[in-house]
Amino acid sequence: MATMMRILIAKPGLDGHDRGAMVVAHALRDAGMEVIYTGIRQTPEQIVQTAIQEDVCAVGLSCLSGAHLRLFPRVVDLLKEKGVSDIIVFGGGIIPEEDAAALKRAGIAEIFGPGTMTSDIVVFLRNNVRSC
Amino acid sequence: MEKEIRSAKARWQQNAVKKARAKIGERKPSFATSSEIPIDILYTPEDIQDFDYIRDLGFPGEFPFTRGVQPTMYRSRLWTMRQYAGFGSAEESNERYRYLIAQGQTGLSVAFDLPTQIGYDSDHPMAEGEVGKVGVAVDSLDDMEILFKGISLETISTSMTINSTAAILLAMYIAVAEKEGIGRAALRGTIQNDILKEYVARGTYIFPPRPSLRIVTDIFSFCRREVPQWNTISVSGYHIREAGATAVQELAFTLADGIAYVQAAADIGLDVDEFAPRISFFFNAHNNLFEEVAKFRAARRMWSKIMRDRFKARDPRSLMLRFHTQTGGSTLTAQQADNNIARVTLQALAAVLGGTQSLHTNSRDEALCLPTEESVRIALRTQQIIAEESGVADVVDPLAGSYYLEWLTDRVEREADKYLRAIDEMGGVIKAIENGYIQREIQTSAYEFQKRVERREQIVVGLNQYTLESEPHCELLRVNPLIEEKQRARLKKLREKRNAQENARALDEVERAARGNDNLIPPIISAVRSYTTVGEICDRLRTVFGEYRPMTTM
Fold it and tell me: Which residues of A touch B203 (CB under 8 A)?
């Protein structure tokens, strides 16, 4: 039997809008994954620390305040600095198309904007997360 | 008469309806409102048998205020058109305000950035990336002076979306006015100051609930004496709804919060009729037109009864639920964003038919970014078209008497009442927040809604039906990325030039009041006058009150 996929859902920055993060967390859990939710107002440092401690295979970042360009790449960079290469980072929020492209260049595996079907995120994780 | 209608309806259902259904059926196996209230094919007098006109509706401006809070409503004065705005620096926001006023907007509504809302200065590490993003960055009185430059605080009414730092921003507003020679008594506006919903929905809390409530009641008692025209709180369902609540939950949890504030003020000995007239509300307007109108009417009826029966208020102004409405941000789609103009029109219409006192209409591009000037103008024009062209503002409460609407108003009230009783049984709303009940209710509704969208039981045009292969590209407004640096530089300069001794003394006074029972607002006003920053004042209060640690409901 395959081990359960462990996913961290995190809210970097000061944004308190966690509806999307919670809905995704519920949906991943219903899809048979193990989900840890950080709660709001996490620094990139705290998120990376939790990701390593909890030994997750992916980190989903949610930000609706417009601070994504600063905060998302910081998580990717910190993971690299810590020598972690097997945790993929994906994200969502109020993120314009051009920013999504920039985030992908910065190492975020995928950006899920408003209107995303949670089933698409499940499929994405099943296809992209290596065994963990 | 009723018997006649009943038998006629039965006959109609047996014959005509049965035949039609056999031929083409109905679009869905069952119909319900967005709060999952099942709805029938047709409503007749039979559905509102217990309806008592005088008891349930009365007249506008009279108890129970179901039909509106003023006798003449929009025939005398249209609702205040108040677009929520603010981004980047104080200069840029000031420019947007002047633009909106020039376009016919009649009130200001200030959006602050998250560091300002959570009590961090722009140079705090937690503020990184957030400065000027969702609103204007205000660190000190210096920023506030620029923000309102050239705007007459004597004539405009200003609403500020500010909660845990509301006392500080109100103090700054008073200080700016003072410098222009305008007395406190002349100031008109609103601070949101609704900390309870921050714990369940919006997330900009700093302190634990009890000291937070003390700040709220300090504001009540200060403004009662000093700023009598100020709306000291805007009890907000808006964010609860955006977080996923249904219309019924929005209504119930908002009124439950309102009850907690009135109780807290009564507990410290304030006379209900002295502060209750300054309480205002803030609701959301989503797409289900009749349910939204029913919600607004039920809200007024419920609040008047709560204030009369539970709190023994006698002043009619204490019994009136006055409210601001904003159209539903979460209903906007990033896909085919121009369709949002139609959604906003429907939602704004619901707010007007529901008797709102002021209205913000969202811009079409808000699922993507901050709205551009053009989008904001269309949103404002939408209100102006409803006001000037549709005719709905010419008759008070024009939908009253509709069998469906009156039935639904009753039903929404009853469903919301069930929640209020459940919360009372739990020991009040603070308990219901502390044990995570309200958060869980909201999250469940949010997830259920998402599942309905994914199963396509809930159609969202452009998203899960009538989609396009490629999306039209739209123009985006971007916040100047240099704003954070600039704001930090300004702050550094300010810290160098102000009188440090004066700041230290002012902060000590704030702390002394916080540790004791003296009203916090006067020492906060002194502090902001000497350019003490939002972050510095909050840090001092953090040492006294501590910080709130949320419980996780996942």
Answer: 15-18, 40-41
Query: Residue A129 corresponds to which tokens in the numbers above?
Result: 């997360």
**CA B8/CA B14 separation, integer angstroms:** 10
Q: Does A25 touch chain B (CB under 8 A)?
A: yes
* pLDDT attached to residue A132: 61
Domain ranges of chain B: 1-27, 53-70+79-454
Residues of A within 8 A of B443 (CB-CB) are 22, 26
Q: Which residues of A49-83 are buried (b: 16+ CB within 10 A; e: fewer)?
A: ebbbeeebbbbbbbbbbbbbbbbbbbbbebbeeee
Q: Chain A within 8 Å of B335 (Cβ-Cβ)?
A: yes
User: Can you tell me whether residue B321 is helix, strand or coil?
Assistant: coil
Q: Is B370 within 8 Å of A66 when comparing Cβ atoms?
A: yes
Polymer length in residues for chain B: 554
Per residue in B303-327, pLDDT (tens digit) is 999 999 999 999 999 999 999 999 9
Cβ neighbours of B129 in A, within 8 Å? 13, 67, 69-71
Average pLDDT, rounded, for chain B = 95
- Name the B residues in 459-488 with CB < 8 Å from any A CB: 460, 463-464, 473, 476, 479
Q: What is the CATH number of domain B53-70+79-454?
A: 3.20.20.240
Residue whose C-alpha is closest to residue B110's, from B130, B124, B80, B90: B90
Q: Which of B385, B366, B420 is nearest to B111 (CA)?
A: B366
| Digit-coded pLDDT (tens) for A9-66 | 999 999 999 999 999 999 999 999 999 999 999 999 999 999 999 999 999 999 999 9
pLDDT at B262 exceeding the cut of 60: yes
The predicted pLDDT at position B370 comes to: 85
Does residue A50 sit at the B interface (CB-CB below 8 Å)?
no
Question: Domains of chain A, with CATH numbers?
Answer: 6-128 (3.40.50.280)
Task: Decide if A23 and B450 are in contact by the 8 Å CB cutoff.
Answer: yes
Segment A60-85 shows an average pLDDT of: 96
Could you tell me the pTM of the whole model? Answer: 0.95
Q: Does A80 contact chain B (CB < 8 Å)?
A: no
Q: What is the pLDDT of residue A131?
A: 60
The two beta strands, A58-63 and A34-37, are: unpaired
A96 contacts B368? CB cut-off 8 A: yes
